[in-house]
Amino acid sequence: MVLLERESVLQDLAGHLQTATGGPGQMALVRGEAGIGKTTVVQHLIRVVPPHVRVLISACDPLVTPRPLGPLIDLAPELDTAVGTALSEALTGLGRPGEVFECLLADLSGQPSLLVIEDVHWADEATTDLLRYLARRLPDLPALIVATYRDDEIGPTHPLTGLLGTLAGYRWVSRHTLDPLSREAVAQLATGHTLDAEELYRVSAGNPFLVTEILCSPSENVPATVREAVAGRLVGLSDLERKVTDALAVMGHRASLPLVASVIPDIDSALEGVLACGILCTNGQTIEFRHELGRLAVLEAVPGYRRLLVHRQVLEAMRHGPVATDDLTLLADHAEAADDPAAVLEYAPRAAAHAAALGSYREAAAQYTRALRYADSLPLDKRAGLWEGHSLSCFLARQLDESIASRRTAVRMRHALGDGQREGEDLRWLSYMLWPAGKSVEAREAGLEAVRLLEKFGPSAELAAAYLNMSMFAAYDHEEAAVADCHARKAMAVGRRPGDAGAALQAQFHPAAARMLCEGSGWEECEQAVCSAMAQNLTLDAGFLALLMCWYTLIQHDDARASAAVQRSQTYCREHELLTYLHCTKAMDSWRLLNRGSWKQALDAAHEVLSHPLSPPIDQAIASTVLALVRARGGEPDAGAALEQAAHFVDRNCLIDLGIGWEGRVETAWLAGEDDRARTEARDGLAALAGRSHPWLSGALACWIRRTGGTPPPAPAAEPYALELAGDATSAAARWDELGCPYDAALARLSGDAPTLRRALTDFEALGARPAAARTRALMRIRGIRPVRSGPRAATRANPHGLTNREMDVFKLLGEGLSDADIAARLYITPKTAGHHVGAVLAKLGVHTRHEAARRLAS
């Protein structure tokens, strides 16, 4: 195909190649809809590659469940022997994916290379992990990696979205979008044909593949769909050639020639004609469709009985010889399409285990789902095993609801079998999974039931894990530190796993965390456990404990420690591709930014969490509370709705455990001037804390009762709250300042003398906390403290138009021609509030229309 309107992209890619092969390395993401010409651009790039640069071409296959590390399997013969060996060992279960990644990294370090991976929208999880691994290390490689994908198939829940988000932060990653061809380009391609160029443009919408297919059709009329265009390309094929083409469409996007020959013995005599039609191509070892759209067009015309026959022939051929582990996915696909339940149950669970071993958890979950569709004939214990595998794969793939549902099914099956030990282990897993789902009460009940059940069978690794689970819950629930310590000691006594360093570190961490939260000590022991886990390369333990440290330091409002903990957790999770934990740190970071007074950044972080479809309920509850508090503190409406949403995500006990949720309910009531409701909420919170030691929440609630004119009951209180309750507002505020929490410091100053109140007012105004500032002025009037400064702030007085900071933000957005709804979305306010601000801006500017305001800004 002639390269039209792609010259600039090709030039950019050639420039990246020149830079990359001399170092540092580069990555180019080429994106566009199906048939837009991504492969054509890559092919033109390959033609200009210098002789000393090695070219490696691979692609992902459009399988229902992708083949783990499929592109790397295709490249193995062209790579260093060490890569092939590591890959073979990983695929047979003797090695690990990390060794494959390291060997490939070493191979790419050895010589300048162009590595192309096409169609990564079909990539399995292990392949996206490989791209993420290489991308981080590209600056040290003499290589250009070109990855192509269909951006019209990438939605918020697509597996590729996470990878693209990670790559967004790397300056050596470039993005190149291929747009549809213009009318002029389509007309140029249609020159010499009898087709109407305008109709051709209308039908094709400028898609180069559709344009080419239509132009190659023998029909003089413009086909309405690509199906007709492809049908025109197949018209001249013989019966055997059409049979081969149909079989290839059923077999998939790409197939090995030996496999095709085993299904169609006389393929050699038909191959030339098949290739001549232009829909397929071959490299001598495999044959594939040039475009997936072409294959699908062929497939739609293949009768159902013929599809079934081909799938059965392929399945039989693949089973005839030794089955390679990297073929398990293909076998499972063909087994299901061949309507062979026995074969599905033979290959799908093995494919699932293989995918999980390579870190492709979404693919593993999909294979378990496939097997479960045919599992009714299996013995109950086999079915339970499939549900357990499905549950764990879903959990690691962040499919939390599916994970919990599958584990519940497994629990019921183990109970029916009378297999108490496995039932107890399933209950422990269920307990562990329920807490991030916001079901803390049920999680604790399941954990206790697991302990009771497993204790009947004596010491075991499963019982040790159940005790550790309860030690963790003791810290979560702010029970006495002795409770967490007791569970941890029991775990170490019954586990009989002296080599399990991860369990030993968790047994150290959870009791220390309980002491840190309840008594103020234990931080050093927690830090030591996290650092030890990282030093010993206990990746999952280290990632989990590092994440918990973010939460625990935030509960204590310690900005310095929280900032260090969040940064460490994010860095470690990025380096080790722990995406589940990495996303959780974003919710923690929104809380951190709220505490330190960076409210605009806190809003951005909270919205990022809430907009992600895989955020667990516990993260959504934190982010919703942050959103509500920023709105309430800034005097914006809808704070109550966000708080109700937070309460909807998790149960009452979980809201108490987090701390931020319940205090948020009290504070928003106070900011709304509803002191009676604030006191009631605070007293309800203290009642819910009976029997637990949560000084950072109980102290806060006691202070809110005092601030609203009530007399708080005795309650454990962390240092800054205890100082305020004792009447020492100055010391309390100073402690908050040391912790890096300016808003909390200003709240503590409300019970101080006149200078202290004036300082509180100044701090609230600097933060943009309008309702709190208004309450402070009212309090000063009641106490007879004069003068109460009123009128515009210094920033407003300095503005030549007399605009406030918020109005100036709106003024600038008016200059961009935005509507009230667009302004509201940009500033995280409601359209109604945006309309009020627009009206104020127009009035202060002395203009009557938005266009006049925009012209005033431009002048």
Describe the protein in words.
Among the domains are: 173 residues, Rossmann fold, CATH 3.40.50.300; 44 residues, no CATH class; 66 residues, Arc Repressor Mutant, subunit A (Orthogonal Bundle); 77 residues, no CATH class; 69 residues; 63 residues, Arc Repressor Mutant, subunit A (Orthogonal Bundle), CATH 1.10.10.10. The radius of gyration is 32 Å and the shape is globular. The strands form two sheets. It has a five-stranded parallel sheet with strand order 2-3-4-1-5. It has a three-stranded antiparallel sheet with strand order 6-8-7. About 1% of the residues have low confidence. It has 859 residues and is mainly α. The protein has 47 helices and eight strands.
Would you identify the CATH architecture of the domain at 7-179?
3-Layer(aba) Sandwich
Strand content is under 5%
Largest sheet: 5 strands, parallel
With helices defined by DSSP (H or I, 4 residues minimum), what is the helix count? 47
Tell the overall outline.
globular
Taking pLDDT < 50 over at least 5 consecutive residues as the criterion, the unreliable ranges are 220-224
